[in-house]
Design a protein that fits this description.
- With about 220 residues, this protein is of the alpha+beta class.
- Helices cover about 30% and strands about 40% of the residues.
- The strands form two sheets. Strands 2, 4, 5, 6, 7, 8, 9, 10, 11 and 12 form a ten-stranded antiparallel β-sheet that branches.
- A hairpin with a 4-residue loop joins β9 (about 170-180) and β10 (about 185-195).
- The radius of gyration is 24 Å and the shape is globular.
- The model is unreliable at about 5-35 (pLDDT under 50).
Length: about 220
C-alpha cells in the first residue's frame, strides 16, 4: 500500500515538473516571438500623426512646431507602407523664431519648449503600449510649423520607390526619419530602403536593393 502511494506521488510530482518545464519553455518561446517582431502589425503613420495633432495642439496651441519624427526598430519587424511598431515626434512650442548668419548662410532657429510624444504598439517586451508624453524641457534648434508637414511616411515611401523606379516586394524594410534643414528651413523625409529580415532569412537580398532618398516633407520634391 505504501509503495503504491509512493509511486503515485512520484508520478504526480514528475507530471507537475514536466508541466512547469513546458510552461517555462512556452513562455520563453512566446517572449522570443514578440521580441522578434513576428506578432507586431505596426502602427499606421496617419494614426500616429492624428494623435500628434490632437495632443500637440492641446499643449502648444497655434505655436505647435515639429523638430523631428522617427520610427523605432525591432528585430524581425520589417517596416513598410508607413507602418512602424514605435513612432516618435519631437514637438516644440515655438515662442520665438530667429535667423542668424553662419558661414555666409542664414540659419533659422526656434526657441521655446520641447516635448516628445511616443506611440508604442502593444506586445513589445519591456515597453508600455499606447501614447506617452515625455517631460517638457527647453528647446533651441530647427523646427517647422506643424501644418507644413503634408507628406506622410507612406506617401514619402511611395514617392521614393517611384523615384528609384523600384517595385516594392514582401522582402523590403524601410526607415522613416524626418529632420529639419535649418539652412533651408524645411522638413525633409529621409527614406532608407534595405532588405528585410525575411529577405535575409530566405537569402533574397541583393546589393542594389539598399538606397536612400530625401524628399521635401511639405512639397514632396525630391532633394538631390
Amino acid at each position: 500500500m505504501r509503495s503504491t502511494l509512493r509511486l503515485s506521488a512520484i508520478i504526480i510530482l514528475s507530471s507537475l515538473f514536466l508541466l512547469t518545464c513546458f510552461n517555462i519553455k512556452y513562455a520563453e518561446a512566446k517572449r522570443e516571438i514578440v521580441e522578434s517582431g513576428k506578432e507586431l502589425k505596426g502602427i499606421a503613420f496617419d494614426e500616429f500623426w492624428a494623435k500628434v495633432q490632437d495632443e500637440g495642439k492641446k499643449w502648444a496651441g497655434n505655436k505647435l512646431y515639429i523638430a523631428k519624427i522617427s520610427s523605432g526598430t525591432f528585430r524581425g519587424f520589417d517596416r513598410h507602407d508607413g507602418l512602424s511598431a514605435v513612432w516618435e515626434a519631437h514637438m516644440v512650442r515655438c515662442n520665438e523664431m530667429k535667423e542668424h548668419k553662419d558661414y555666409g548662410k542664414t540659419i533659422s532657429t526656434c526657441r521655446g519648449k520641447g516635448m516628445v510624444l511616443q506611440m508604442i504598439e502593444s506586445g513589445i517586451i519591456g515597453l508600455d503600449a499606447g501614447l506617452h508624453m515625455k517631460k517638457e524641457g527647453n528647446f533651441r534648434g530647427g523646427a517647422v510649423d506643424f501644418d507644413r508637414i503634408r507628406l506622410s511616411a507612406q506617401s514619402a515611401e511611395q514617392a521614393a520607390n517611384q523615384h528609384m523606379r523600384y517595385r516594392p516586394s514582401i522582402f523590403d524594410h524601410y526607415t522613416y526619419d524626418l529632420k529639419i534643414d535649418q539652412f533651408s528651413n524645411r522638413p525633409i523625409w529621409i527614406i532608407k530602403k534595405a532588405c528585410g529580415s525575411r529577405g535575409v532569412l530566405e537569402r533574397r537580398c541583393r546589393p542594389k536593393e539598399h538606397w536612400i532618398v530625401k524628399l521635401d516633407g511639405e512639397t514632396g520634391e525630391i532633394i538631390r
